[in-house]
Amino acid sequence: MGTTEVFNSFKDEEGKFKQELSGDIKGLMGLYEASQLNIEGEDMLHEAGGYSYRLLKSYVTCLGYPQDRAVVEHTLKYPHHKSLPKFMAKDFIIRNLQRANEWMKELQELAMIDFEMVQSQHQQEILRISE
Questions:
Q1: What global pTM score does this model have?
Q2: Where is the Terpene synthase N-terminal domain (predicted)?
Q3: DSSP-derived 3-state class of residue 40
């Protein structure tokens, strides 16, 4: 099954995206993320991206929980397939894990150590290259 067939399953008889999709924020975020894999000539992915972006952008203003707003805004600003997850990790940890339970604090420390080790490794590689 090709890309077109997969995305056509989300459309109604008139060729528009099904109305029930508009209420599924997680689904829309997944659709938006998938659309980021768009290459030239794949009009269906381009259309899916525009559709999901518009709906998600409108939901940002009316989501009740600040955490939900932040997740949607982050997805729109930094789609996974167009960002570098290792470099986004520190921001994610700081924004989302500081209010967590004790075991989450340990996880945060572990993630920060991992981030610092990778950062150090990259700095060493840059030094070697510049020599």
A1: 0.59
A2: 4-62
A3: coil
Distance in angstroms (rounded) separating the CA atoms of residues 87 and 89: 5
Reply yes or no on whether the pLDDT at 103 is more than 70: no
Domain layout of the chain by residue ranges: 1-81, 84-131
Listed in sequence order, the DSSP H helices in the chain are 3-8, 25-35, 43-60, 66-77, 85-96, 102-130
- Under CATH, what is the fold of the domain 1-81? Glycosyltransferase (1.50.10)
How many other CB atoms are found less than 10 A from the CB of residue 17?
A: 18
Q: What is residue 86's predicted lDDT score, i.e. its pLDDT?
A: 65
Is 24 strand, coil or helix? coil
pLDDT of residue 85: 67
What letter would DSSP give residue 18? P
- Cβ neighbors of 67 (< 8 A, separation 6 or more) are 96
